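Can anyone check this?
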Amino acid sequence: MNAENYAEIFKALAHPIRLKIVCGLMKNGQCSVNTMADNLGVSQSLISQHLNILKNSGIIKGYREGNHIWYKLENELAVKLLQNIELNICGLK
């Protein structure tokens, strides 16, 4: 991993909603857009915008199961970074 890879991850995580999405996926393993929107109290379209940023940075991946798209963490480096920082928001302390 080089500095550019780390910077891309930090850039993608540098928004409260995206950080909450990733922390939720760390706790739950996978989640749908509807559940994320309900849990965070924001619109599905806003969640989708943030999911696209996380997908494009390689942090998460979506997969279809019937009519639902489920999202899960794909980037172990992002998980390790958050675990090492021990963010209260992720409940990892």
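Reply from J.R.: I decoded it. Strands lie at 30-32, 60-65, 68-73.
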